[in-house]
Design brief:
heterodimer; A: 367 residues; mainly alpha; 4-stranded mixed sheet; 4 strands; 56% helix; B: 335 residues; alpha+beta; 4-stranded antiparallel sheet; 10 helices; 30% helix; 17% strand; extended
Chain lengths: 367, 335
Amino acid sequence: MAYLKFQRSAIHSAVSSSAAHIGVGISGQEGMQAVLASDYSFAQFRYLRRLLLVHGRWSYFRMCNFLWYFFYKNFAFTLVHFWYGFFCGFSAQTVYDQWFITLFNIVYTSLPVLAMGLFDQDVSDQNSLHYPSLYKPGQQNLFFNKRQFFLCTLQGVSTSSLLFFIPYAAFSVMVKEDGSYISDQQVFAVTIATSLVIVVTVQIGLDTHYWTVVNHFFVWGSLIVYFAILFAMQSDGMFGIFTSSFPFVGTARNCLSEKSVWLVILLTSVVCVVPGMAVSFLRVELFPTLTDKVQTSSHRSAYAFSHQQGYGELITSGKNMKMSTASSTGSPGGTPQSSTWIENMLKRKNAVSCVSDEITGAPAKTD
Amino acid sequence: MVKEEKEIANRPDNTAFTQQRLPAWQPMLSAGIVIPGFVLIGLAFIGIGVALFVTSRSITVLEIDYTGVEKDSPCYKCSDADVKNCVCNLVFSIDRTRVLLLWFVKLFQNYRKYAASKDDDQLSGDLDAFTAPSDSCSPYDYNSNDKPIVPCGAIANSMFNDTFKLYRVVNGAKKLVPLDGKGIAWWIDYNVKYRNPSVTPLKNAFNNTVKPIFWPKPAYQLDASDPANNGFINQDFLVWMRRAALPDFRKLYRRITEGDYAKGLPAGNYSLTIAYNYPVLSFEGTKKVVFSNVSWMGGKNEFLGIAYLVVGSLCVLMSIVMLIVYAKFKFPEED
């Protein structure tokens, strides 16, 4: 969320949050004008805390993840044709079956990311309330900005190049086990399409932090539906009814029964997915953000955290947290414990820009 | 009291689904999972890579270019476009048994307009399409006299028509090696996708049509020796129609598995007589003849073996790097 505006007044209270672009009104003793002018309303001012810190934050996090993944999978899907252009005389010959192109975004890859957009939680709601600093990336536009978009594009382009060039190199000299031809357009298409669906499904699986029943159903279901539709459309029956519309008859059966084709698919999938895993593991170890630390700690036992006051300053002074040697500017160490969490947030908004610097802080007063 | 009732009426559902409280599995890619996972993947890939590499090494491929570009090539005389029905002779020796004879051509079968230039209805035996070929075949749908071409389209028109005869040279005498041309195309092509019109004799179905411009003989005369190998289900035609994905490709011509050569071609001297009909020099293509073996992973494919070895080693290396990083950053925290 880029900013949070609110007015405190005895007569009405209205808050607008610009990420979700909703207006919220709080109904009060003095009247209902704010309620009438807003998208959502509730009765007590304290409800605002949960709305912003939990749901607003989750909404921002989910939206950014969704955007990132959507751009990534479409770059990976489409740019294969860019690479293929160099090898087909730039004639715009498609790599994939026409039906696959139609169904990719609608059927094979739409539901897992939808489930992630609805249910994903990077930290639980209690932790979101206990550590209001987690709200900061939203205010500072950290989860999806030009840099993130560039990285997402880069990953999409490199995935597409691996998706094309590994099968290209393998199919240049491949024949079937009985010697007959296998490097034809249709087998090439099915191999790359299968690798693509597996890669993007594994990627959404790695990006989903909170696997509800719905997520499981959509992710595994999408993979199963892909193979079901693949074999159904390339069956003799469909070819018999609509001859010109299903020229890929028999391809899936012939190529997915060859060991060498599965070896190509396995190699492509692993090479596309594994570097991302290594990079994100190293990033969490070397440059952990507050979200990473909260996630790691909540997976350990709960004794590490005191719930006495429930504000973020407490975590910054705990012994179990690593004290960074980086200097902190404008840390809120000198201020007395604030009476309201809103004043704390305002102070932090004007404080250090780097989120991880939140961890450095003044020594505890209560310890 | 009124206010309370209004509140109850407007209260949203309090279910786990609507209140974002669904029970969930929250996997965490911790070091305990990622590092052993990388080691496992790395070792598995190295194992597969070794198996592929060793298998590929055991397969040998003999390739002989016969385009005839160089002056000292036996087929140089055939490379002249004006020479028709040229025959050239290659002499070579084989050191290990081989079972496959393939031809290799460098040409763009994946060009979009070329790829669309065929009529699937004609090729599945629909007689209506014989008299009215579809527009996608143009300009290879009607000849200059407005007669429909069957099979229409650029793909069929450009069918590869070099033929090969293989002789084994034993004590100076040439002995013909029998080549097996059955089943070189996909079963699905021969039995389902391409069908001859159900007219006997097949010749009658082609009345009032003409053969493709480039072909020496019409479709119903593609194989004089085997009546089941004519029309659209001719094996060589099917092999050609299975369009290649990449600009250079090798397709199966014959298998060498008959009679004395049930185990393939033994080592020795051989002579290959080529009826050089297919002109590739006008677009700077090349032609080669290839003798190869097969294995469980297909033909010789060094790329897969090497790629698996490289990826496996990189995974193991990454796991070591991650272990060092993890150990270095974890243990100072816990003192």
